[in-house]
Amino acid sequence: MKTLLNTLYLTTPGAYVHLDNDTLRVEVERETRLRVPLHHIGAVVTFGNEVLISPAAMMALAAAGKSLVICDRNGRFKARLEGETQGNVLLRQVQWQRITDSDFALDMAKAFIAGKLRNGRQVMLRGAREAKRTEDAEKLTRCALNLAASLRAIKGAGSLDIARGIEGEAARGYFAHLPALLREDQRNDFAMNGRTRRPPLDRFNALLSFLYSMLMNDCRSACEAAGLDPQAGFLHTLRPGRAALALDLMEEFRPLLADRLALSLINRGQLRAGDFDLRTGGAVQLHDDARKVLIVAYQERKQDEVTHPLLGQKGALGVMPHLQARLLARILRGDGDGYMPFLSR
Question: Are 218 and 282 in a shared domain?
Fold first, then answer.
């Protein structure tokens, strides 16, 4: 099973990354704060304009097949530096041919949606079991029943537009009930009126947006490592600069690697209302220190051991997008009956 390499996240303003032989050295105000061997790193992600990296370090990352991802302070993707394109060009050719097969594309889209709804339903059922108030348990149970109905409806969706409509309606219900999983004393500070982004308009959405950005980068790396074109997806509309397949793949992992983590950080008090800035115009942004807490928690979550439901192998949760990308490549080659999303137990 693939070794889970660490992603080096750089958030400190004024940080500068040098190359020392085969080691990345991070300086802040000319003081060395960190040394990391290059072979221990899977990728480097920077946040904000104040983080700098030397040309030698960029060249070394590209030569070693490690990606450099540049994000703004809110975690929004801006650019990516990579070495030579990986993967078999014949696999990518098949991938593009499959996109034009409307029946195959619809089946793939339905599988990605089903994975997202199934794992979201598990989040609701778990919350209903652990709820301290009967009212909350009943709300979460109703949401789980609605998601189950959406799962049944997805099976019969006759077009991509219908499938997307079912997914959108299910997502609205899911996000409407997500705050019911919070502790009562946190609900006012982390109130959420549906999903908002670009910019997020409340603390909960700001937290989710940051987590989703990190998850998308991981799913894009998984697609590339499997030799797939991350921009050629089935569920998400193709658009210049959009990693549609990475967005497809991340759907089934949103509830597991992002939503549950966000809820845990709030309920355990690791993130509080004071960790967010409320900007003019209604935008909400995480403080620098809060981003560091979030990044550490995300890396720890990726290390949790799970069992792959199809392969029966145990491994870190962060490895599962790589396994799913490889299974997807097999389906595209015609080595399987249909794509099976990763489902939590």
Answer: yes
Confidence of residue 246 (pLDDT cuts 50, 70, 90): very high
Using 50, 70 and 90 to split pLDDT, how confident is the model at 87?
low
Q: 10 is in which domain, residue-wise?
A: 6-81
- Residue 234 is assigned to a structural domain of this protein: yes
Spell out the residues 6+ positions from residue 220 whose beta carbon is closer than 8 angstroms to its own. Answer: 80, 230, 243, 246
Rounded to whole angstroms, the Cα distance separating 56 from 68 reads 13
Domain shared by 298 and 164, yes or no: yes
Model confidence at 263: pLDDT above 70: yes
Please answer whether residues 285 and 74 qualify as being in contact, where contact means their C-beta atoms are separated by less than 8 angstroms. Answer: yes
- Contact (CB, 8 A) for 52 and 17: yes
Collapse the DSSP code of 18 into the 3-class scheme (helix H, G, I; strand E, B; otherwise coil) and give the result. Answer: strand
* Phi, psi angles (nearest 5°) of residue 16: -135, 130
DSSP state of 273: G
How far apart are the C-alpha atoms of 30 and 48, rounded to whole Å?
19
Q: Amino acid identity, residue 199?
A: P
- Residues 272 and 251: their CA atoms lie apart, in Å, by 27
